[in-house]
Known about the structure:
Its cofactor is Zn(2+). GO terms for molecular function: metal ion binding; metalloendopeptidase activity. This is Peptidase. Keywords: Hydrolase, Metal-binding, Metalloprotease, Protease, Zinc. There is one protein chain. With about 270 residues, this protein is mainly alpha-helical. It has one domain (about 35-265). The protein is built from eleven helices and five strands; from the N terminus they run H-H-E-E-H-H-E-E-E-H-H-H-H-H-H-H. A three-stranded mixed sheet has the order 3-5-4. Strands 1-2 form a two-stranded antiparallel sheet. Helix 6 (about 125-140) crosses helix 9. The N and C termini lie far apart (about 80 Å).
Amino acid sequence: MTVNEQQEPSVSMRIALLGLALLLAACGESPTGRTQVTLVPDQQMAAIGERTFNEMLRAQPVLRDSRVREQVHCITKALVDALPAPHGDWSVAVFKDETPNAFALPGGKIGINTGMLRIASTPDQLAAVIAHEIGHVIADHSNERLTQQLAVQGGLMLVDLFADEPDSLAHEALRKALGIGAQYGVLLPYSRTHETEADLLGLELMADAGFDPRASLTLWRKMAAAAEGQPLEFLSTHPSNESRLEDLAAEMDAALARYQQAQQGGRRPRCG
């Protein structure tokens, strides 16, 4: 072997160095100061969000009740206006679906099911739901989740690439173990982190917009009562109801101070 050959990095080393460079370039902070990695360009994420939202609008019936739509748009506008920095255009739609759920997509797309409106029965409670979804968007959670999934897929591809016997039972067992480990060790915990972060960001945002943050506790108690059952927190993509309420209660004094300041500053949304 020549000196040049000895100094030539292996394929695995090249991949590792490339991966490290990408991670360093993509490292940033969420609005709460948490370190996060996002590899997908914002424009591409926004395009994904818009395409998905348009597909849902075509595939699912949308509520046409003008009173409800005006209320939802009023609450959304008040929340968006209270954001510390502009975040582009926002769209919100109410879908005819009795499942108590809401979602957010990159690019400022928000969907609310009619089933959620039966639980979030006041403007303040509905503001808690929408603010939570806005929290997901401004914290770039979709990009972070997609990056995690790409990383898991990349890791499994490396296992296949460097396997001595790709078709062996040992290799297949290793591949499955890596997949399970990534699911429960990375993807689900990060999802719980995202939900908790969106709760706290939403709590601050609704208070800044002039909505009573105490309504968030009422909302999640009602959600807990409406749920027939919930999986163990360890195996769930959401925090347990008890954890969620404890985290919100711990931040309530600070949120109430923001709410009072917003009210004194003239932020008093009329979205009834």
